[in-house]
Amino acid sequence: MRRKRRENDGNPYKSARELNLCFSLFFSIVKVLGNVMVLGVYVLQAIGRSTYMLIRVKGVLVSKKSRYQQIDVVDTEEFGRVLVLDGLVQSAEVDEFYYHESLVHPAMILHPNPRKVLILGGGEGATLREVLKHSTVERAVMVDIDEEVVKVSRDYLVSWHSGAFDDPRATVVIEDGRTFVEKLKEKFDVVIMDLTDPYGPEIARALYGEEFIERLHEVLADDGVLSTQAGTSFFYPEEFNELHRSLAKVFKKVASFSVWIPSFGYSCNFIVASKTRGLSEVTEYEVDQTLRARGVITKFISGKVVRALLNLPRYRKYYTE
């Protein structure tokens, strides 16, 4: 689950008034160009600082405001059911597995025997679902700040969590992730950060700072692995590179890759950091063999896919060296 964009100069949603102006401007342009369009309800999805995507909505199932954010669950024409927080698509029925499998499985495969896993964020339960597919997992702790998102997901996003919330190995904690980690004494084999984008609000950016990354390093066991979504390096290259450099300072091995997520409108970046072994050292055969041995069935991730994702374009290799 990704979250809000930056709430200062980089945020294209400074107010409801500005959002309405964006809609008016779009439809005015359509009229001037002479195109025919049936007006309706749309999600105006921010992709970059000044780039947007429109998603047509068929029906609204939930629209409520929690203590932290606006929560909407809508049915759309092309992406199926979609969870929207503060006007931004978090995940969609038709492509959520691209995101969640990419966030979870490369890191889980990299660890030889992941028994204890900590998930920061991930209120839909889909990250938890993918973690629990690994038969080695004995304990999975999911920490999310917004109880309302978890409640809504339980009722309306059943295919996302697939009952993961009720798995006896799972523990759901409603608390700020930073606060939870700061007081944590328990060690984990894998930590998965399914949090806000690195270029989100100030409070979110602190979760990607070197100080917090060092704390996560302490929380991990000696052979621990960390995985995080990292927003979009195309639209926010400086923020991505800063996060990549911070992880490289703290962890021995760091690898990054990106996956096209249609409902986001961009390629989403992921970073896997390890105390011991690098993701690039894992063979195609090892990926497939590990998934089979642990009883993991995937729709997207495989040995061939992981190897392909790690073959970064030349410009991205330059920026992450």
What do these coordinates show?
With 321 residues, the protein is an alpha/beta fold. The protein has two domains: 16-92, Spermidine synthase, tetramerisation domain (Spermidine Synthase, Chain: A, domain 2); 96-320, Vaccinia Virus protein VP39 (Rossmann fold, 3-Layer(aba) Sandwich). It contains twelve helices and twelve strands. It has helices at 16-33, 96-110, 126-132, 147-156, 158-161, 177-182, 202-205, 210-219, 237-250, 284-293, 303-310, 314-320, and strands at residues 42-46, 52-65, 70-76, 80-85, 88-92, 116-121, 139-144, 170-174, 188-194, 220-229, 253-261, 266-274. The strands form two sheets. A seven-stranded mixed beta sheet has the order 8-7-6-9-10-12-11, with helices on both faces. Strand 4 and strand 5 (88-92) form a beta hairpin. Helix 8 (210-219) crosses helix 9 and helix 10 (284-293) packs across helix 11 (303-310). The longest helix has 18 residues, at 16-33. Residues 5-38 have low confidence and may be disordered.
List the helices and strands and how they pair.
Layout (H helix, E strand, L loop, with lengths): L15 H18 L8 E5 L5 E14 L4 E7 L3 E6 L2 E5 L3 H15 L5 E6 L4 H7 L6 E6 L2 H10 L1 H4 L8 E5 L2 H6 L5 E7 L7 H4 L4 H10 E10 L7 H14 L2 E9 L4 E9 L9 H10 L9 H8 L3 H7 L1
Parallel strand pairs: 6-7, 6-9, 7-8, 9-10
Antiparallel strand pairs: 1-2, 2-3, 3-4, 4-5, 10-12, 11-12
Helix pairs in contact: 2-3, 8-9, 10-11
